[in-house]
Amino acid sequence: MMPVPKTVLLVEDNEDNRIVYSTILRHFGYRVMEALNGEEGIATARAERPDLILMDISIPIIDGWEATQVLKHDPETRQIPIIALTAHALASDRERAMEVGCDGYLAKPCEPRAVVAEVQRFLGRPGAAAGDGAGSVAAPGSAIGDGQYAGGEPVGNGVRTGGDGAAESGGGAAGGGGGGATGAGSGSGATTATRGTTAR
Predict the structure, then answer these.
(1) Among candidates 75, 58, 47, which has minimal Cα distance to 12?
(2) I want to staple 126 with a disulfide (CB 3.0 to 4.6 A). Which of 17, 29, 103, 142 is the partner?
């Protein structure tokens, strides 16, 4: 029997970011649900009980700070890990993320593979046996777990990965549909996110 894929709720109002992050997460075997604002994110989290939430902070109606607090004060959703995705990269912003209940923190713009690596830190790699590191993604730069910035280097309107790139086979994570988010890794590294992620 095939294992049930882990579910990630992506709360993000920027379409380009949603396409990039959801595409690469699906490529790595996660089921992805999307919400466009904090109110929708809270409702979806309560109804669907995802395994993890990627929470943009600058979102309409209810911002990510308040949405996180609501979910962490709800006994039904408080156990769900929440990773903040924010363009606020100051130390005080990281501290605030921890104070409101975020379990992880990524400063935008961040490489798609950094997002995958942080998700894998909490959920593991879909279908992987214990101790099997094949197919896992190492975040660039400093370890994300210590709260340090793990963003990528902006290249034009995209984000460049280091080493092997975010996708290593076929036509990349998004061979078709949705506008295509990643390119095949080759040479000294692939340029991911045709549309590019933005710091919003």
Answers:
(1) 58
(2) 29
